[in-house]
Amino acid sequence: MGATDKGDDPIVESKPNDQGPDLTLRALEERIRQQEILAELGVTALQGASFDELLTATVRLTAQGLRAEFCKVLEHIPSENRFLVRAGVGWNPGIIGVASVGADLASPAGFALRTGKPVISNHLENEDRFRTPEILQQHGVRRAMNVILQGDGKPFGVLEVDSRSKNEFVEHDLAFLQGAANILGMAIERERYERRLKAALERDEVLLKEVNHRVKNSLAIVASMLRLQARDVGDGELIEHLNEASRRVAAVGRAHDQLFQGSDVERRDIGKYIEAVCKDLDESVAHCEVHTDVDEGIEIPTDRAISSALIVNELIANAAKYAYPNQSGGKISIRVSRSGENDFAISVRDEGAGLPANFDLGKAKGLGMRIISAFAQQLNATIVVHPQNPGTEFVVFIPLDALPAS
Fold first, then answer.
1. Per the domain annotation, does 37 fall within a domain?
2. Are residues 288 and 396 in the same domain?
3. Residue 71 CA neighbour count, 13 Å, CB half
4. Domain around 39
5. What segment(s) does the record annotate as region Disordered (predicted)?
6. Is residue 260 part of a domain?
7. Cα–Cα distance between 32 and 138 in angstroms, integer?
8. Are residues 269 and 184 in the same domain?
9. Is there a single domain that holds both residue 123 and residue 31?
């Protein structure tokens, strides 16, 4: 027996009538079936099957296409110079994911990996080019065919089909096997790329969380410095202004911290976000009961979520400060809901003293109301004030997305 080593020609046992006469009708039908199988395998890959699902489909369909009892994917483990049976069909229990074979040149799979050349061996019992792996001996395999599995610039391993029958693998079978390996190789490349991308995203997420943590700490330090400054001044009005500034800086820090609790940094479920912000209010509203009722699934860009949350924070602070001035506590209700196809609404209601009869939102001079108006203008939002009995309700109607630039 001999072997060819020119170019990428396969290593095949020499046989007097290797190709034989013209293909019979049965053989032609078999080739057509093999092409259908390759198409089916390609569709499976394109439909986004997981890597393990595609491995399983490959070995199953390849065995069918070659009318063989066995097929397996051998994953190369460089540190051990061996192949792990990563997936397979027809093998006894305890083989897949456990058994391994040598990856040296003396094994058919090892030769295919090292040289990049396919290997056909139709008579393993008489084979003098390679040793027959023990796993094949145990299963009574008489013939085998191997092709390399490429992927992302370096070999993943080998795709091998094995059979107990006395029939022979021919070059047409090799073309089919190589086609299956090529499809699987593209999936291997995609899987490795996705794994690297996931690792990069995880690194970016760690960095983002670190930056977020530092921003939060920096804002907390600023708020603390303002509170300390308030203690050292003798002017009551200035003390109040400094404490208000400290509260607002701390509110920004809390809103920022809640913003980066999720994985999507570009969009935010505004209902869940407002609910989280309301659970993290400072001690200035501790005497009030804050209740939330939100519709989930209303997603808006992150920058709009921040401004919306800060409007809510200011409305809650105003309600706690002015609606219940002489009471030990009171109820503040927050509602987030859809408002038509392109807007959502945030309602902040108290059951307190109510607004002055001559209250005009557009002419309000308090810093809190001016901040609310500024954020509303930024969001192209509309604020409606509803006097209640008792209390007051502010409703902010906000577009889901920013209007396109004119």
1. yes
2. yes
3. 19
4. 11-194
5. 1-22
6. no
7. 33
8. no
9. yes
